């Protein structure tokens, strides 16, 4: 398996394409710029199978309906953010943008941690709230990578000053879940460069001394 990073949308949110040798693909967090994303999918010769959302802030959902409709594929989001896709107040677009960002309701709601299998792909779903109440991270052991959304960044952690954010909860999640992953795990972050669990354990100033 391979994965590609495509920064999209108004604040360059990382969309990820995870794909296998057959060209089957998972789309994580298609945040906007649908033409750029479609061109990338076409250039790689991929057939998207599913959209997985780490959370439903506006900058992670802007191209959801375009991708869903073009490839006729389902969307997954955590149940705590089930109504964020259709509500600009909740997804934050009414606060940060002149116009609202909307998407249709998700096809499937994540209700608990555990294994999520979709087609040829399998992930361990980790509930990782704190940045937002329905944040989830998708760990793919086969490639030792966790798609973490805005939970953990290279040298930083997710902001918690938005509605539903909780700083103490996020720190607890980071130490009790994220940092329990193998140190060699790649972290595919929602913004900025990828990192590893080991690197953040050693050098992330927000995690030292907790």
Automatic annotation (TrEMBL):
Query: Which InterPro entries does this chain map to?
Result: MBL_Glyoxalase_II (IPR051453), Metallo-B-lactamas (IPR001279), RibonucZ/Hydroxyglut_hydro (IPR036866)
**Record flagged with keyword Lyase:** no
Keywords, in A-Z order: Hydrolase, Metal-binding, Zinc
SMART domains from the xrefs? Lactamase_B
Asked if Metal-binding is a keyword of the record, the answer is yes
Name used for this protein in its record: Glyoxylase, beta-lactamase superfamily II
Q: Where is the Metallo-beta-lactamase domain?
A: 12-191
- CDD domains membership: metallo-hydrolase-like_MBL-fold
Q: Which GO terms describe its molecular function?
A: hydrolase activity; metal ion binding
Cofactor(s) named in the record = Zn(2+)
